[in-house]
Amino acid sequence: ELIPTLFAEPHPSGPTGRALFDEILAELLEGVSAAGVVDGVLLEMHGSMVAEGIADADGHILRALRDVVGPFVPIVVQLDIHTNMSAEMIECADALIVRETYPEVDKAERGRECADLLVRILQEGIQPSMRACFIPMMWGMNQVTADAPMKETIERLHEIETRPGVLCASVATCFPLADVHCMGASVTVVTDGDAELAQACADELGAWIYEQRAQWHLPRRSTQQVLEQVQADGLFPAILADRDDNTGGGAPGDSTGMLQTFVDAGLKDACVLYIVDTESVAACFAAGVGAQIELQVGGKSAPIQGEPVTMQVRVIAISDGQYRYDGPMYAGLEATMGPSAHVEQDGLHVLLVTIREQPFDTAFARTLGLDPRQMRYVGVKSAAHFRSGFGDWAGCVHLVAEPSVHSPWAVTFHNLGRQVFPLDEGGRFDPTLLEEGR
Question: What are the sequence ranges of the domains in the chain?
C-alpha cells in the first residue's frame, strides 16, 4: 500500500525561508508518523536545497526522517543531477539515485528505478551499502548527456552498474552557485552489502571525472560572437541560449545583453523567450492588444543584469499565462507564466512574463501566437532544458554568456571549506586553472 504525504516545489531562487522550511518539514514528518509502522520510504528531492540557517537542507530532512522511522526502515531517494551530495545524505539514506539525463527527461524512469530497488530491499533481503566519492570540482556547462564527454561519463557509470554486487551508481554534477560546504561534484555507488566495492567503484569514476576537469567548462562567448558564427554557418533556426540568465537555476530572467544585441543587429524573424518584467507586462495590459507603446524592457532586478532596452513595440497578444506543456519533459502538465504579453518591434518578437520559468518546449509561446519554429533566431533564457523541446528542429544550438547574477564568475565563495576547481584560494573563479587542467 502506497501512503502519500506531500509534494512541495518552488521556483529556483535563494535560500528557503526558515519558517516555511520548518512548516513543510513538519508536515512531511507528520504524514510519515501518521502512517504508523512503515516498510520503507520513497522520496524525491532536488539535492541542493539551502534554507536559512541550514546549508545542507536535504541532509537535514533525511536526518529528521531517519529519526522518525528508525535505523532499519529503508529510505530510497531520487535526486536531481545538480545535487550537492553531503556526508549527511549518504549516512541517512539507504540509496540515493541521481537522474542520468541532462536535460532531465528520465524523471519517471529514475522514479521507477527507486521504487524497484525499494521493493527488492523489502522482498529479496538486499542489504544496501552506499559510499560516495566527493570530487573537489565545480562542474561547468558541458554536461549535456548526449554530447561528449558527458556521454562517456554515463557509459562508464553504466559499466559499473553491470559489475557483480553493484545495485546502482550515480553521478551528480553539483549546483555551482550554492556557497555551502557540500558544493561539488560526486559519484555514489550502492552495492549489496559490500562497502569496500562501493567505495572503490565511486573512487574510480570520481578520479576519471577529475582528470577531465577542464573539459566540463565551455568557453564564454557573447551574443555578438555567436551571431557572427551563426550568420557564417547559415544553419537555421538558430537557438541562442543565455546560459547565465537561466531562470531554471534561480536567475532573475531579465538580463538584457542578448536582447540589446538582437535589437542592435536589426534581427528580423527573431524572438526572445522569455524576459521577466512585471512592469512591462502591466503596461501592455493597460494599452491593450494592437497598441503601439514604448517599453523599457528588462534590466530591473540588479545592475549586473544590464540596462533596460528601449523598444517601440506593438502589443500582439496578452494572456493570463495558463498553458499545458506538450514537450518531452512535462507533456500534459498544466503550468502558468503569470500575466504575460507578446510584443513585436520590426520583426523581433519578445515574450514578457511575470513568473520566472525557462522554456522547456514551445507550448506557451504558441498560446500567445508565436511559433518559434518559424523564426530564424530564437533566444532562450535557459542552459540545457530547452534542448528537450527545441533541439529536434533547431538548425544549430549555441550557448551565450551575458552578464548576470547567476554567473559563477560573478560570485565569491566563502563557505566551501576546501579548494574547489576552478576556484582560487580566495573563492573566485580563476580561468588560468582551466588552462592548467587541460
Answer: 18-216, 223-400
C-alpha cell at 58: 536535504
Cα of first residue to Cα of last residue in the chain, in angstroms, is: 52
Name which of 186, 136, 119, 209 is nearest 425 in CA terms: 136
Coil/strand/helix, residue 408: helix
- Which residues partner with 380 through β-bridges? 241, 273
Alpha carbons 68 and 66: distance in angstroms, whole number:
5
Question: Half-sphere exposure of residue 309, counting CA atoms within 13 Å on the CB side?
Answer: 24
Do 329 and 388 touch, CB atoms closer than 8 A?
yes
The pLDDT tens digits for 66-94 are 999 999 999 999 999 999 999 999 999 99
**Mode of pairing for the β-strands spanning 377-380 and 238-242:** parallel
- Looking at residue 405, the DSSP 8-state letter turns out to be T
HSE-up (13 A, CA, CB side) for residue 283: 17
User: What are the grid coordinates assigned to 271, written together?
Assistant: 524572438
**Distance from the Cα of residue 1 to its chain's centroid:** 32
Cell of 228: 557572427
Global pTM reads: 0.92
